[in-house]
Design a protein that fits this description.
This protein is about 0% helix and about 50% strand. By secondary structure, it is mainly β.
């Protein structure tokens, strides 16, 4: 039997600690007691139309649904060590929102949370907007569809990530990442993908200086590049670029094909660089 907790305000420490088989509806978590961990260690529960303004509100939660709710900037580290949860139609502002969580889905949310999503596994993000520094640091097995993301140092040290239909405005993204596929997306930012392994872009637009250096098994399929100078330095790369590349410098191995390249630089290398840069033949119409 589901217990319903509705239309109440809670502000004491562990106010609803260890609740099970419950629905929390239209409640507020705020007040002078300033209590932490209001929904800690809860199981099989839903939170709907609630507002949070207290630290660490949902730690160690399992089998939960959080929807139509808000967490303001006072909800520091709002969800840690959670498992098997859904977050939908929420506005979240607390720093370090998701940490060491497993099997979490996020849909139609607006999130502003530095250090979001560290060391998580099995995260699915759809139809959302996220602003975060060090977004998804050291996480793995992540799927993303229709995300508008902004913030520096994203997707670093990640493994097994698939992104599609997204707009990523970021810097130093995908550093030291492994097994990443990005499809039908715009990726804007400086120093993209350095030291990555098995990084693939398909039908993407890449914008920014010095992208994709020191990469292993890098692939670009039917992509475009804008303001990308000194690209591919010391990378093992296979790339098919529609349009122009500002410059290519010292690719380690592989083949880069483009419609045009402003400058091809083979000089001052610290290793053998045998990559080929080919200019695609243009067919002239009558």
């Amino acid at each position: 039997m589901i217990k319903i907790i509705s239309n109440q305000t809670f502000d004491e420490e562990r106010s609803l600690y260890n609740i099970k088989d419950a629905e929390v509806l239209n409640c507020k978590f705020e007040g002078p007691a300033d209590g932490e961990s209001v929904l800690k260690e809860c199981r099989n529960f839903s939170v709907n139309k609630c507002s949070f303004s207290l630290r660490y509100p949902m730690w160690h939660a399992k089998k939960f649904l959080l929807k139509n709710s808000s967490m303001d900037e006072k909800t520091r580290a709002p969800l840690w060590y959670c498992k098997d949860g859904e977050i939908a139609d929420c506005d979240i502002q607390g720093i370090k929102c998701l940490r060491e969580c497993k099997n979490i889905s996020i849909d139609n949310c607006s999130i502003d949370s530095p250090e979001f999503g560290w060391r998580c596994k099995g995260v699915k993000i759809t139809n959302s907007t996220i602003d975060a520094m060090y977004f998804l640091f050291e996480s793995k097995d992540v799927e993303i569809d229709n995300l508008n993301m902004a913030g520096k140092y994203s997707f670093q040290y990640m493994k097994n990530l698939h992104i599609k239909n997204s707009n990523l405005d970021t810097k130093d993204a995908f550093w030291h990442s492994k097994n990443i596929v990005v499809e039908n997306s715009v990726v804007k930012g400086e120093y993209l993908g350095w030291f990555s392994e098995n990084l693939t872009f398909i039908n993407c637009k890449i914008i920014g200086t010095q992208p994709l250096c020191y990469c292993k098994n890098l692939k670009l399929i039917n992509c475009t590049m804008d303001a990308t100078d000194l690209s591919f330095e010391y990378s093992e790369v296979e790339a098919d670029i529609s349009g122009h590349i500002y410059s290519v410098k010292n690719p380690k191995s592989g083949t880069i094909v483009a419609d045009s390249v402003g400058e091809i630089i083979f000089e001052d290398a610290i290793m053998k660089c045998r990559g080929q840069v080919l200019i695609r033949e243009q067919k002239l119409s009558a």
